[in-house]
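A quick aside before the break. I want you to see a complete sequence-to-structure record at least once, exactly as it would be stored in a machine-readable document. Don't worry about memorizing anything.
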Amino acid sequence: MKRLIIAAALAALCIPSLAQDPAGAVVYSLPKTTLTFDVEAVQESFYAGPYAKYAAKYLGIEVRTEDEVNCQISKVTMTPYLEADQDSRFTLNVPAKAKSSFLSLTAQGLVAFTDNSLGEAAVWRFPSPNRADFSDKGVSSNLSSAETTLYGQKGGQSVSVQQNMVVEKSPEKRAEETANLIFELRKKRVQIVTGDTDATYSGEAMGAAIEEITRLEKEYLSLFAGYSEYKPVQMRYELVPQKGEDQNYVVFRVSDKGGLVGSDEISGTPVILELTPEAISAVEAPAKPAKGNFATIRIPAVCRLRLFRGSELLLQSRVPVYQLGVESYYPIQ
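That is the input. The structure line, written in tokens, reads:
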């Protein structure tokens, strides 16, 4: 039992005591800016058509011939937020009559002056491809009739006998038939529109016939051009700029297979944030007062913000960043 009591006492001595804010004093933190990026992307899984390699020969079009996966950003929203910088906390004795006049405190304990504009969220959108599908699409029979010549003996002489055999169509033959069907559908559509047909189409009947022909054409065409499945991806990333000369940051990465991933995933293409603080007029920074009652304040640096994926500009804006600015002093009377 004595051993347990001694062990507990030693453990208590090892626990650091929590610092208490002085009673009656105002304790506040300087503000810092956090940049939040809400990113939406579309991940495409493309499946090449079974007749892709015959598209140029029979349709005169160039199509993708291999399955592939890629991810494209469709929307980026950047929103700046203010939060308390816990590394810059100050204690201040403020007279009761001055509290409401000079200072207003947020719930986080940071000093909110009139220059703490957050700006507006910057939103950029990018076009997304449309969905396509050719599941359960057929053309004609996979079998074809071919004529061959057989030889046999009759009366001691060799004679030829014609015989029909059922053989499998080659992929190219099936591609050729599908291409012919596409051209027939296009021809039929032109005939309906121009009235060059034995049947009479008008009003809704004409619209329904053209719509069905167009649907069939797209189905057959997808056997050459392939189809894609699209998966929406959404992620949020937060970045706190640090004071220093280099203001380039990898915010996140875009991976074809992984989608939107973190900045530490080396497999993806980096999305780089470039912050450029605007020049501040050459005014000498005020010296810290030797005595008197004053509040330390932080004046933000207005920065030009640009977001790049490779050489592609995704977003640009202007935003005040407090921790990249300068500190000044405000007298409290």
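Two observations worth writing down. Residues 171-194 form the longest helix (24 residues). The CA atoms of residues 2 and 8 lie 10 Å apart. We'll return to this after the break.
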